[in-house]
Amino acid sequence: MLQSFHEDCVERAQGALRRGVDRRTALRALGALSLAPLAAGGPARAQGARELVIVNWGGIANEGFGRFYGAPFEAANAGFKVIQNSTGPSAGRIKSMVDSGSVTWDLCDSSSTSARVLGKQNLVEKIDYAVVKKSDAISEAFTLEHGAAPYSFSSVLAYDSSKFPNGAPQSWADFYDLRKFPGTRLMRRDALAVLDAAQMALGKDPRNLYPLDTRACLNKLKEIRRNAVFWANGSESEQFLRTGEAVMGQIWHTRAKVLEQETNGRIKFIWNQGLLQAGIFVIPRGAPGGANTQRLLASMLANPEPQVELLKFLGNGPTNPRAAALVPEEFKRFNPTDPANAVQQVTLDGNWWGDNYTQLNQDVIDIITG
Q: Does 211 sit behind a cis peptide bond, omega within 30 degrees of 0 on the bond before it?
């Protein structure tokens, strides 16, 4: 199974601690976790507390969500306990829980694509935008009918600057130009973001990118397939570039940040034509927290300070428009929603992908393996 961005956050943060990368920041955040909610299955919880369960993908991400999402809600709402459950809220697990009538989860770290698919199947609740404020998100792409996003991430173009002394790639058209920029390309083994980049390489205005011309995008991918390698998880995406097996690639911004810092700028990345994506949370239909679950989600979007702390801790971008002014200068370069970075990017259309992902992803896999 391909690794999702959510799972990658766990792996990357754990790897940072093992390598000592940004260790001081990580340990400082971990040390503060005595204030954070405990994971499900931990020591006994407070007697009489009304519990709300956030389900994520475990590891340090689990702890970060507890600290920066759960703790502020508890502080503002006496009598509530926000529990972190690291089961891994895949769409299949959400469906099984709802179908069985035994829903124990309140909020699930999901995706815009899954929110669309699950919503069409009546497996997740509609977001109550009388409670969750759309003005607390930077655009409508982060407040969908069946999900809302308290964090963001991007797929960006990273490249080995030592391979291009006469000028670096600046666009997806350059990425596809093997004559001007020779060398092996790196892409995710997935349709999402890969076909969006192919559409931009074909010259379509990024401001009017959707709907994608899927046939043309698939044909464009075929042009480069024999000169490309494909990654299935975030650590692979780093390794292909670190070892020189690929000279440029489309990878998550969090991985690009690690490479840029570890190579002292030899491997660089650009925000231009990056694919900005919403870190969507969904509410399974019949969530036991009821209206209080909507309030918890509202607080996750409404509070910019914890979102900034999550950026510093995990690299996830804030989505509250007031957060940008609070980001320290040294983190702005790596913040996908910083105004200077966001204006260069395209916000991925999760609704369009929710309607088209299954078939297109199979088409891409057929091209890669064909």
A: yes
Query: What 3-state DSSP class applies to 338?
Result: coil
Site of tokens 């000279």:
247
Average pLDDT, integer, range 182-193: 98
Q: Which amino acid is at 11?
A: E
Q: What values do phi and psi take at 248, rounded to 5?
A: -155, 160
Q: What is the largest CA-CA distance in the chain?
A: 67
Q: d(Cα 175, Cα 57) in Å, to the nearest integer?
A: 32
- Give the model confidence (pLDDT) of 303-347 as tens digits: 999 999 999 999 999 999 999 999 999 999 999 999 999 999 999
Collapsed DSSP state (helix, strand, coil) of residue 223: helix
The type of residue at 79 is G
- Give CA–CA dist 155/302, Å, rounded: 25
Residue type, 170: Q
pLDDT digits (tens, 9 = 90+) for 55-99: 998 777 788 899 999 999 999 999 999 999 998 999 999 999 999
Residue 166 CA to residue 149 CA, distance in Å, equals 40
What residues form DSSP beta bridges with 85?
Answer: 55
Q: What is the pTM of this model?
A: 0.89
Give the per-residue pLDDT at 16.
Answer: 55
With residues binned 3-state (H G I as helix, E B as strand, rest as coil), the percentages for the chain, rounded to 5, are 50, 20, 35
Domains of the chain: 5-152+277-340 (3.40.190.10), 153-276+349-369 (3.40.190.10)
Beta pairing partners, 39: 84
- Residue 164 CA, chain-centre distance (Å), reads 29
For residue 212 the two structure tokens come to: 């994608």
Token pair belonging to 277: 């994506």
Q: Which residues contact residue 335 at a Cβ distance below 8 angstroms, ignoring those fewer than 6 apart?
A: 311, 317, 318, 324, 327, 341
Give 324's Cβ-side CA count (13 Å radius).
14
Return the residue matching tokens 């926000």. Answer: 82
The Cα 157–Cα 171 span in angstroms is 8
Tell me 202's DSSP state: T
Q: Is the dihedral of CA 10, 16, 18, 22 positive or negative?
A: negative
